[in-house]
User: Fold these one by one.
Assistant:
Number 1:
Amino acid sequence: MSSRIFGSGIRRREDPRLITGAATYTDDLSLPGMLYAAMLRSPHAHARIKKIDVNAAKSAPGVMAVYTGSDVGDALKPVPCAWLLPNANLKIATYRAIATDTVRYVGDVVAVVVAETPYQAHDALDLIDVDYAPLPCTLEPQAATTPGAPQIHADIPNNEAFSWSVSGGDVDAAFRNADVIVKERIIQQRLIPTAMEPRALLAQWSAASGELTLWNTTQNPHIVRFLCSVVTGVPEDKLRVVAPEVGGGFGSKIAAYPADFITVFCAMRLNRPVKWTETRSENYQATTHGRDHVQEVELAAKKDGTILGLRATVWAGMGAYLSTAAPGIPTILHGLMLSGVYNLPAVHEDVHGVYTNTTPVDAYRGAGRPEAAFMLERMLDKLARELKMDPADVRLKNMIPRFENGHSVITGLVYDSGDYPAGLKKVLEHVKYQDLRREQADARRQGRYIGIGLGSYVEVCGIGPSQVAGAIGFQGGLWESAIVRVHPTGKVQVFIGASPHGQGEETTFAQLVASEIGVAVNDVKVVHGDTDATPMGWGTYGSRTTAVGGAALILATRKVKEKAKVIAAHLLEAAVEDMDYADGRFFVKGSPDKAKTIQDIALMANVAWNMPPGVEAGLEASMFYDPPNFTYPFGSHLAVVEVDPETGEVQLKRYVALDDCGPQINPVIVEGQVHGGVVQGIGQALWEEAIYDRTGQLVTGSMLDYALPRADRLCEIEVLNTVTPSPHHPLGLKGVGEAGTIASTAAVYSAVLDALAPFGVETLRMPFTAERVWKAMQK
């Protein structure tokens, strides 16, 4: 493989259209005869629907139709959950796209209006008269399971959607033999993914052919096609899904949503294209949220800082219904990662998935891994304080030593490769850690409160293989596919099942192909996001696009290269085993001046005038890749903050992120992914929180009330790396899209509490608003 392209920080080819306004988003699309849908959503967190009067809305100007749940009936099957945990006592609350008798969160759809303009549709919503009988609501996951809590679904006692546990080693003995036990109650607050473009859908139905086309802001066109077929009854071969520019997802555009199916229903009933675009208020109310865990955890250790065991109980808020992948996040993706980067001899965790009268949750960048890493890192900080040890020393003492080809951890996973101590040591050396601690001590003597925080992590990503998917109840496969087609002129088209939406694979995948077969990177076009044009793929999430889809692509490209080698040998009248290759040229070993370029071979393969016996015409190959294991990126981050004792304001002074994602196809894109992830994790620590009042109203329902990270509140993010290839990936790649989020929340939390140590503050709930920090300092 040519090192000149692989590993080069070339600019992203996606960016010119994105930053000049030339990109096409779903809401930019327009079709002849197109109508517009608007959803009427419940203003109550919990209520019975006594009566709905839509007559005035039907008579409003421009209105073509108004539908309620009774109009839809069985035309749409229930909205599916696609992660059915085995051995978890799973209780799925079946729900329809439009509520018929009961609403269970503010934002539940009760009716839809279709009109000639979006303004007419939204105006008509005000004319629908719904008679509600409000019911008591329950909002906090742990409290929702207590006796007397309001029941959200009559047939599901104690609001428990599922219970699940993970165990390994002798936990009782670990705590019995411990010299020290530290405990903590951690609140992982609810977060709202805020993508640049809210969700949108355009549905076009042809009654004559029975074909449906959907343009959708989705991370998973093929999964949307699959689930839409299940709910609407349209056969998959007559259902096309296209993902234009998605405008950011962060996990919120994985799920299948009621509004998607409702829009399709409207288009099929009216036999006209129907577009629906959610408002930002709808986006905050009804697009899935993230996190929302209550974690009660304790850690047992020896007096020298050696970890002996961990046990925890987690109450994970699921919202009013189970979203597409929600059950797997606080269980598989969280519970199995509780060992982290450390030698943990024993573990036990019980997880309770709990229904609440809130927006359903699903994946949010990191999805379970940040919650697990935070839990573990928080307990190590508490242990260090209890033993009066340096937090870095406690971490290094317990880290798993370097390994290159598999390491089994107590939760049952087998990590692929890692050198966790080397990463942390590199960070400490980079910041001159001991000097930094001395500077901190000097600042405190001057009345300045500096804090230093660490966060180390390993994440499970490159989600696969499919056999594991079946074992953990994931209702789909986890392989990926790719097709590589070389045209007669040597230009290359790549068709991938994965659907990148900001990660940069239009660039990095072109680099992979160009490096492997020796064409110019600008001669490779990457096609994605259209189920009629691309092979099947199981989705872009869990940092799996490159780890799984990239593997499929490189193996398909190698098939093309092997065929090209056979054709070159024939054209040069040489034995295949005597052929050599370098930079897109095939030649007889020892005679580099006698060569055929990949372009020469592509032309001959496509015209097929002089082909080797038994070799098919064309220069094209496909690959379906099912990985043998997950991949496990890792790293260590360090944050420095200063807390103003007069106001409680937290200022981020320095941030260092070291991540190991294996070899980097494009370091510039890796750095961008790290930056984005780090900022989202910092957002959780310092600013972001979805807040409901006691009646279930979303108080933080707009950007005026939900505090997002801003550039002027951040510092430079210093990006470091080590390279530890995955032994089972054809290029050693691991994935990096979520890495920054997993470590950064813990690192910043740790730094703030370190700054507050002189005030005796030992724990504090996130986010660290100035008011919350100031009050803690006064106590």
Number 2:
Amino acid sequence: MRSFGWIRTRAGRWARDLAQDVKYAARSLRRAPAFTIVAVTTLALGIGANAAMFSVLNAFLIRPLPYPQPDRLVRVFRTSIFSQSWPHSSANVLDYRERNTVFDYVVPWNGLRQSMTADGEAAEGLQGMSVTADFFPALGVPAAHGRWFTTDEDKPGASQVAVLSEGFWRRRFGADPSIVGRTLRLEGQPVTVVGVMPPGFEHQILWGPIDLWRPFAFTPEQRQARGNNYLQALGRLKAGISRQQAEQSMVALQANMPRQTGANRNESLRLEPLQRSTSDDVSRRAMWLAFGLSGFVLLIACANLANLQLVRTAARVREHTVRAALGASRIRLLRQSLTESGVIACAGGHAGSVVALGVIEFVNRRLFVDLPLARVTLDLRVFSFTLSCAVVTGLLFGTVPALLASRADVSSALSDRPRGSTSGSHSTFRHALIVSEVAFALVLLTGAGLFLKGLQRFSDRDPGWRVDGLVTAQLGVRGLNVSQTPDQRGAVLRAFYKVFEERVRALPGVVDIAISSSLPIGGFNSSGPLAVEGRPALEQGRYPEVFAETVSLGYFNTLGIRLISGRLFDTRDNTDAPAVTVVNERLAKQFWPNESPLGKRVSRPPRPGTNLTWLEVVGVVNDVGFPGNLSEPYSRLESFIPLAQQPIQGMNITVRTTMVPESLTEPMRRLTAELMPASPLNRIRTARTLVNQNLGRTELLATLLGAFAVLGLVLAAIGIYGVTSYSVAQRTGEIGIRMALGAEARDVLRLILRKGIALVLLGVSLGAFGAYAVAALLLSLIPTLPARDPMTPIGLALALVTTAMLASYLPARRASKLDPASALRHE
């Protein structure tokens, strides 16, 4: 009990001393408003930049998904020599589900566009997902209203059900709870709403815009199909199974599948935490790089604040020594100085949160234009990070000045030494801080400069087609009679597309129109194996992977893809003519490296019990790249098929125009409503807008990095200016004596600048090593970014030296204009 009382007494005394120190620090800072404002502002900018970048990381990579045990949820990717993130065929995913021993669930999904019609209203386009019935139990979240659809409803003929997202239910139906059991008209068919999911379940950063979920209801043919890879897949790990164990098991399963199923032997599987799959590899690496570089802003701010504290300590040296003479211990003086630094850090952390909020609002406006429910926010995790930054920076910039202040010599400080004079240790530490600031600034400038320059060069690179001047839209032809045969539906589609093309081409300013299954923005949609006539029959599972695109006659001219040899599609390529294809250069060189591909025939491998359908190669076009995707190869093996020979319902519309592209939006929408009322034209954008949206996250990070680099440069310049100005003030008497003895203004200018330039050059020399490391790191993290540019770091180093010299020159020039008599009176 006695020991407990002693502890309580000491704790109470410590708390009283701390409260007294805080009050004293607050009064002291109020008496120095200029110092306080500069210190808090500098710290707010450094902490705000880091808190904002941490918020982005938190939203995409750290914050747990809103599902039970999210660490057990993983994405299942198909891998090959071409990509590490390819989709799957329906047969393969179903095999994974049935044969694996490490997952409770393996769930396929795919994006879904639906058309909803109501009496007296225009058709409304909806975005959603096609999923199997175990999608919801895999994620483990019950419906807020109603229920999920069942396995019995996930079958052909019984799949006319839907589950709505909370956002769509609230926006479209006013959160009416009686929606469960109501019938909607989707794709011209009655569909019963069986449930509504709770808020947050749709997680737009992970899934994109979601209005509803519909059953896949795979047909027997789809369950056997391995030639079309278009499905994404996720799994929930069994209890006690790690991701590494599951990946080893699934890789072994995939390796055994070709012998049993004919799956491709060139492929494997890769598992990734579902949380990480909210962004691709390039975006993740860019976010970590930007976060790391933003830390240099905080380091520069800390160096500036430490210098400010040193100046303030030197100016208050008599105060500290008087307190020491009156009995204050060294620990007491040290604690008082650290308390003042802590008060500044807390104020800077609070102001930094405000700065971070402004940056986050900018990020949200730029990043989530089409995702109203997706947001980067300041949550408890971010506030904890901000508080940690404030505490650490308080210690970083406050410790050394506090130690120096506590070492004040009483006798010398109370003597007649000039006021404000400082010891050699103070001067050495200030110079070290300036060198550090310059080095940190060069590393930050180099990383940001190479990132920005590389992104600009990537955007300027010719992708093999003309991006500008194109309007794009998505169109799904709805309302077809499900009782019709495939040939009958194909005839209806061909007739509609023909009339649609003619009517759009007649619009003012339209040069040409293309209809295609996908666009080369971020990558093509689906792939499959390809057999070559005349070559030895390949073993099942060893066919090369090719992306097959269905395109209209005007596709190549509209996009600006060049013909290399042969011909493009024309009116002779109809249903009565032999099947044909146009291939890209890469495919032609791989299959026929030393001969012409024209007249050669290729085919998709047949399903068991069916015959090959040969496609004659009639033309070769240039390779096209994906200007909206830094993660994928510049081009792929591509085979184009005429729309007339293989019409499909879901297509992309691309129009080249001589007018402002946005001016075609309403005319195209009205035309579609007139020709096919049940088929709304969705997502009307320019191709350039789509490219920018695909690169949006990376471009946004580059913009933030550029802003941080400018901020770091400004802070470094302010620090150099402040130290030089203080040095000039300390040497006023010396300068006066030199000028009284005959020194000219240029001599004084040279005297002041020599030291500043030496420190700057030393900082640049040390920073060059860090800049080289950052450049190498950038190239290793994002190898597709063309960032090999030695002139950029050299130019940035020269800009930094110039800025630093200007920051030193201004106080030096002021010193050179001192009046000797005034300077001597100051002494």
Number 3:
Amino acid sequence: METLLQDIRYGCRMLMKSPTFTAIAVITLALGIGANTALFSVINGVLLSPLPFPEPDKLITLHENKPNFEGGSVSYPNFRDWQKDNHTFSSMALSRTYAFSLTGIGEAEQVNADFVSSDFFTVLGIKPVIGRTFAQDEERVGAGPVALISAGLWQRKLSSAPDILGKNITLDARDYTIVGVIPASLHMNVPGFREADVYAPIGQWSNPLLLQRGAGLGFHGIARLKPGVTLQQAQADMDGVTRNLANAFPDADKGITAKLTPLKAMMIGNVRPLLLVLLAAVGFVLLIACVNVANLLLARSTSRTREFAVRAALGATRARVVRQLLTESILLALMGGGLGLFLAAWGTRAALGVLPAALPRAEQVGLDSHVLLFTAIISLLAGIVFGLTPAFKTARPDLHETLKQGGRGASGARSRTQSVFVVVEMALALVLLIGAGLTIRSLAKLWSINPGFSPHNVLTFGLSLPPSMMHAKPDAVRAAFRDFDERLAAVPGIQAVSQTWGAVPLGSDDEQLFWLEGQPKPANENDMNWAIDYMVEPDYLKAMGIPLRRGRFFAQQDNDHSPLVVVVDEMFAEKFFPGQDAVGKRIHLPSKKGQLAEIVGVVGHVKQWGLNTDEQQSLRAELYIPCMQMPDEFVAMTPSGSGVIVRAASVSGLLESIHRASVQMSSQQVIFGAQTMDSMIADSVASQRFSMILLVSFAVLALLLASVGIYGVISYVVGQRSHEIGIRMALGAEPRDILRLILGRGGKLAGLGVAVGLAAAFGLTRLMTSMLYGVGVTDPLTFSGVAVLLTLVALAACYIPARRATRVDPVVALRYE
């Protein structure tokens, strides 16, 4: 221990004697360690940390697989039978996202809500802050209205009043009795499950299809495995349950199976490959930083060769010298790690700020004890890695040559080692640059895709009618929506307005069943055809900028008193009427009790599922239905939340104008969830943009470090060859000859590094297949362009020391020698 402390004190003195060298080395390491720590904090929060629930590994999500659609919602009657008949789950629950209009407490607003079954919080292991959760009897249809509220809403709207239990809260013009308060930590970010302001029992949802076995209605299931039960055993059990239901209810459940997925896997989605690729990329940055510091240590060892030769002559063993040098390297690494932690804290916040929506479990990301331990380990490993080679090179000097006045010792071997390091740096930088180039080209391809509509200056938002309309007759509701449209159309700058009650491109989906005229009615709903369902008004096409291909779109006369009409997209027409004109054809709609609806127009296809994923989906046919022709029981559900699409000359200040027009109609009318279609498209490519930003950042950092590395080596070479350069110039060499000589050395190193990097990139970029769109993993343009760029940057870095070499004074160089 005494010897170790002595080494540490001596190492600190040596580092303080070379403040410039120490600062450069520490900053270089801080960049590499900080980038790795920041990304590890993301991976730790997203992939490694457990879910914030008791025994989270036992939580399983439940969905229905239909013959032509996987991972769909679960019908409520099926769920009740699953719950009753399974033998592998200790508890099972159901949830569906919703939104209530909250009135009577301050300004009216729309609050996020979930309809849940009575066991929902039991499955998750969540206990209320005060009060209780729902009783089983409160889940049934017709039970008294009760609600749970979140701790956030309790604090924000009710000042955390302790006597809140038993009091009422007005939701959609109906009083709900508050029975408990749920902690504000339900971070799930899974379809069907979200942190809500209000939770209500499923039976409170006044949807006439709730008890229909074939209607999924957006419900998603979650269950907790019994002790000792595996996922495979649970899947086999549920397969038996669904087979029995298919036999008992063939009309609704034929072909229906249960899909079981661990909750954590559902939450993480497909982000794992992206994060692992980014971790590999940032690991390359750390390697480059270590190589750079190793090069710095090798160059610095030139001035210390005589010191260690004297030590060896006085009896110091090779192990003793190596230990001293490793101590100094580890001190550098620890200082770099400390500074890297500050950079990581900033970098983590910056990464989350750039793209929070693209990252699941973002709330778990931070610098916790695991991240600190990772930083400490990686700092120590970095110190050992970059310290080993310089230590071994310096620890075995040629005593006779080194102790002679002017002897240069092992400078030739040291120069060769530095050259190897530069080649490695260049190769790693090239791989990162190619990865960044591929993501840039991929994102450019995505942005150039036509989504099927014109997103510019289009605003979408939700509308909740005043409480007086919540339980109004359907005709009154239709009149209220028409009145809202007219008021909005009168706002200066607005060009088109349309309600939308079904799917929203890139936002939410809704499906419609049908069968073609002239075909027998399918035996059950699962044998029917499916289409994406848009319920819209006449100005929808103008508002969205969707092209009309044939026929016409809806008109004002297409209302609840006129014959049923629909409009289809090109995919629908090609799939169901190949080689024919779809206009004039008719289809049966179960939602209209099997009535026939005439196809009056064909419009362009909209990429509903995303710019880069729409072609991969089996369900792409699109069907448009007039809002005003929807059944009365459906219209009765829309006052609490309808979608609105608006096209204007400019979206700047548009939302404020819409709010003013809405308040003039009623102060209890709520506008919520406003978003431009441009931002929705940006969100759809969020993960690609996130990966591009990080890869480009890492690649630029790698390029900078590699440039510094080759600059340092060429500078070292110039210093070591000053005598040779002086002789050459004394014998008549021109400055351009010297320039060519030095640049040639740098060019060879860069060329070799580029060659090695290209070979590595051909193999490693295949790991990025899932991250790319429209660009091959061995795209020739990217590979060649990046190789040329890196070579030019390397030559530019070599030019400064090469230029300095041309100014060597032969007399001074020879006298120095």
